[in-house]
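Retro notes (design track)

What went well: tokenization of the new backbones is finally stable.
What didn't: we kept losing track of which sequence belonged to which structure.
Fix going forward: every design gets posted as structure first, then sequence, in one message. First example under the new rule, 185 residues:
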């Protein structure tokens, strides 16, 4: 008897068509989080922007072989600066600064950068007179600056080679269309 009852229930379940109808109205918005007071909406979270800037510069005696710009950099945030080093098969090769070039007879040239909470600069140093450099080392240099929030770097540092510009862009979810032009003085 039980077997027949189970069989009838199973057939009834399989025979009933699935009920589906139009979607109901949108419900009220939920709460972002509790702010310590029962039933009240908490503060919205902050939006974190990973910013990527690009500028073209010429290092010269007039600018003391250094360029810079104002940029708000929060406590614990990090700044990465890349220099267009070469074109390889139509692709740009970016190098993370600092970069040192070794010339004949022990001459060295270094591209480097430094930053504070409100300013950064990119500069050249050498163990010879920089005015003797050919234009290929000083003129129309493309630079990209990546601003990374400090907590982001702490969480992701083990997974990324920061010297690989494309890997950094991929990790922060940016592409070429997200790069913001910047004027560097």
């Amino acid at each position: 008897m039980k077997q027949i009852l189970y069989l009838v229930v199973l057939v009834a379940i399989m025979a009933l068509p699935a009920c589906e109808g139009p979607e109901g109205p949108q419900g009220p918005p939920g709460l972002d989080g509790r702010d310590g007071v029962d039933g009240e909406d908490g503060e919205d979270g902050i939006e974190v922007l990973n910013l990527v800037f690009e500028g073209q510069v010429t290092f010269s005696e007039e600018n003391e072989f250094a360029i810079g710009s104002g940029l708000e950099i929060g406590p614990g945030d990090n700044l990465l600066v890349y220099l267009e080093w070469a074109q390889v098969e139509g692709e740009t090769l970016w190098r993370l600064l600092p970069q040192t070039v070794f010339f004949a007879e022990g001459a060295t040239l270094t591209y480097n950068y430094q930053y504070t909470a409100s300013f950064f600069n990119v500069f050249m140093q050498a163990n010879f007179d920089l005015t003797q450099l050919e234009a290929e080392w000083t003129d129309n240099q493309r630079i990209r600056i990546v601003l990374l929030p400090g907590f982001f770097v702490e969480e992701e540092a083990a997974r990324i080679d920061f010297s690989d510009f494309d890997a950094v862009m991929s990790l922060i979810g940016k592409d070429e269309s997200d790069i913001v032009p910047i004027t560097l003085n």
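Added context from the reviewer: The chain has one domain: 51-181.
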